[in-house]
Design goal:
346 residues; 2 domains; elongated
Amino acid sequence: MAPPQQPESPGARDVGYSSRHILELRLMHHYSNAAVDAFVVGLEWEPSFVRIMKNDVPLLALNHLFLMDTLLSVSMLHLASTEPQMRDVLPIIPYREQAHRSFRKELVNMTAETLRQVTMASLLLVSTSFVVDRLADHSGIWLIDWMALPTGPRLFINPRGASADGTPVYETPPLFDSAGYSPVDPVSPLMVPLHLAAVLPVSEEDADWPHRADLVQAVTGVGKLFGALASPSLQLMIPFKVRSWPAQFVTTNFIHLAKQHHPKALVVIAYVLAFFNFLPRVWIFEGVARGDMARLERLIEPGWELYLAVPKRAVLIDNPMVLKDFLLSQLPSMSYGDPAAFAFGT
């Protein structure tokens, strides 16, 4: 006689997994086992911060759905970048839109208790901005989209581990004085190519005089990139300086000018792109420099093409040493020891 069977729990046979359940389980696994590690080289994350992103974020996401939306979107973007055959079958745009919607909603209602989760989500969204534009074949300038994110590229600055309670600690972007001088980088010389310096208004009769402070600050940041390139002791910091340029030197009004395709703002952006080949050749920066330069050429007003000549050539140079020599050859024989002298023409 066969032994009696154990009764099944109510509804046990009704439990099933939809294709969406299976996809999201895969994305959760992929996030901790592949996606986080893929950020390390490009963003120079320290080991303590990597552990937070791998272990803490998935646990926090279980109780904060806006963070879960972000995690799933970021994981999907990495999966699509590393397995191209998946691009046409993954719902990349719907998941990204959901992540943005839920994040914006959380920002409105953010409390001290959710600050940590919002910080995590913000960092992940900013870090994959270029990837979204690339996979969506976005026709606009990707660098402007990155700068215009609500939380801004300020979180692209290198996280410096964690505080005692496990909250990520970032280098806080400083305030600027009237010359656009940044105390984060007081040692880099300020060296500006002539075609870049030419975008600055020189008199109150110039129609762009009201935007002078915004242009000065952005150009000062690029001048610091050139100055670091000319200083052997600072050259290893170039990737960090490129990533943090928007956080340290870009104003809201400059972003507005860029969105309006103001030619002077576009020239400044072009010179930033000239430094992108110093960044690691990784998925989060793939296609940015050359793609954005081509789009800039199409958008800039007639008569301004000459000002793009140097950055246009620079983005085609893959060898960092050759690129360094080329960019340094564009500099004047002197540097501006005093940022105020450069900024106000004194």
